[in-house]
Amino acid sequence: MNQAKNYEEMQSLLRLPQQKDKEYQAALYLLSTDDDLTRIAKPCISEDGIAFQKIKNDANWLGDKTKQVVEIANNLFNSASVCSLAPADLAWLGYPLLEQVCNSLFIAGDQCAVVIGHSAQGKATLTLDSSSWERNKQFAEKLQKMETTLSAELNIDR
């Protein structure tokens, strides 16, 4: 399996604004985690969007964990969709699915971005760019230091 190749193939089915959309990126990231799931999802992706109900129907034979991943991808893509998973359900996903679900949450929350590159051999590579999260973290740390300094100067207990 090459998640980068799967992601790239599905992304190519979308218009440019959709490709840059965090909800699309998060959904495609999860749908690209499994070759069988990618094969099922590709015909359901177009410039009109992602037909999650068809993916759910067609992926029914893939097993409970994959169905849960599809449900999460659907909810990240469309927050109005019903997601019946509880944190305990997520915990049972295990490695690597739980890590991929967590990554998709960071993607949807604009804490990181999917970056597709190519190795020297021409093989697609997928990395997550967390530089925006790092900037937010640094800003929050600076803000906390300023608050602490100001509180000390004004003799305010925090």
Relevant terms:
158 residues; mainly alpha; two-stranded antiparallel ribbon; 4 strands; globular
Concise structural overview:
The chain has 158 residues and is mostly helical. It is 58% helix and 10% strand.
If you had to describe this structure to a student in words, what would you say it looks like?
This protein has 158 residues and is mostly helical. The protein has one domain. Helices cover 58% and strands 10% of the residues. The chain has helices at residues 3-11, 16-20, 22-31, 35-41, 52-58, 64-77, 87-91, 97-108, 131-153; strands at 45-46, 49-50, 113-118, 124-129. The strands form 2 sheets. It has a two-stranded antiparallel ribbon with strand order 1-2. A two-stranded antiparallel ribbon has the order 3-4. A hairpin with a 2-residue loop joins strand 1 and strand 2 (49-50). Helix 1 packs across helix 3 (22-31) and helix 6 (64-77) runs parallel beside helix 8 (97-108). It starts with a helix and ends in a 5-residue tail after the last helix. The mean pLDDT is 91.
